[in-house]
Amino acid sequence: MTQRRKSCGFQSRFGLTTEDSSFDLLAHLRQLQADQPDEWDVCFEAHKKRWRARLCAIRKTTTAAERSKKKILQRAKKKQIRVRPQTLECAEYVYILVTVARDVMGTAEALEIYRARWQIELCFKRMKSLLQLGHVPKRSDQSARAWIQGKLLSILLIERLVDEARFFSPWGFNLSAAKPLARVSRSA
Fold first, then answer.
1. The sheet that has 38-46: what strands, in order across it?
2. What is the 3-state secondary structure (H, E, C) of the chain?
3. Among candidate residues 48, 44, 49, the one with its CA nearest the CA of residue 98
4. 9-18, 29-38, 171-180: lowest mean pLDDT where?
5. What is the mean pLDDT of the chain?
6. 29: which residues sit within 8 A by CB, 6+ positions away?
7. What is the C-alpha to C-alpha distance for residues 37 and 94, in angstroms, rounded to an integer?
8. pLDDT at position 173, please?
9. Which of the two residues, 13 and 69, has the higher pLDDT score?
10. Residue 105: φ, ψ to 5°
11. Of 8, 33, 102, 136, which alpha carbon lies 20 to 30 A from 126's?
12. How does residue 71 score in pLDDT terms, banded at 50, 70 and 90?
C-alpha cells in the first residue's frame, strides 16, 4: 500500500491510515473545537506489523500554541533548518496514539494521563539539572547508593518546601476565605 507522507511527528514516521485508506492528520485536527478533545480510529505500521490505535487530540490554547511555535522556530534557527508550515500548524494541537480499548480508557482520560506523565517527565528533568543526577560520581555500590539516597532526600525536601511556599500565607489562612474586618456603610 502506497502512503503519502505527512510532516507531523509520528504521521511521517509511521504513516497513519484508516482501516482502508490514508489518514490526513491535519484535516482531522482542524475539525477540533476549543477545549473539546476528539479521537479517530487509525492504523500504523511498526516493527513490520500493522497496529490498530486511536489518535486522541485536543487543540491548544492560543498562548500555548504560540509558545510551541516559538520553540520550534528557535530550534530551527539554531540548527539552520527550514520549518514547514504543516509543522507549525501541528504545534497548535496535542495528539497521542492510544492502543488501549475505548471502553477501558476514554479520550479525555487518555489525554489527562498524558498530561500527568508529562509532569513526571518535567520533574525528572528538574532533578537531573538542579541536582546533577545524570551521573553518579562514586565507584562502589555502597557509596553510590548513599549518594543517590542523599540526592533523593534533597529532592523530597525541596519539593516539600516548594509545595509549602506555594500555599504559604503570612497570616495563616487563605485570603479568599477571610471574613471582612469591618463593614462599610455606603449611605450618602
1. 38-46, 49-59, 93-98
2. CCCCCCCCCHHHHHCCECCCCECCHHHHHCCCCCCCCEEEEEEEEECCEEEEEEEEEEECCHHHHHHHHHHHHHHHHHHCCCCCHHHHHHCCEEEEEECCCCCCCCHHHHHHHHHHHHHHHHHHHHHHHHCCCCCCCCCCHHHHHHHHHHHHHHHHHHHHHHHHHHCCCCCCCCHHHCCCCCCCCCCC
3. 44
4. 171-180
5. 81
6. 57, 59, 89, 90, 92, 93, 95
7. 10
8. 57
9. 69
10. -145, 120
11. 8
12. very high
Quote the cell numbers at residue 117. 506523565
The set of cell numbers assigned to 23 is: 489518514
For the stretch 9-21, pLDDT in tens is 545 555 788 888 8
CA 158 to each of CA 54, 55, 76, 119, 163: distance values in angstroms, whole numbers, following the listed order: 39, 37, 35, 16, 8
Q: What separation in angstroms does the CA of 42 have from each of 47, 123, 139, 173?
A: 17, 32, 49, 51
Residue 95 is placed in which grid cell? 495528539
Query: For residues 5 and 44, what is the distance between their CA atoms, to the nearest angstrom?
Result: 12
Residue 11 C-alpha cell reads as: 504521521
Cell of 87: 509543522
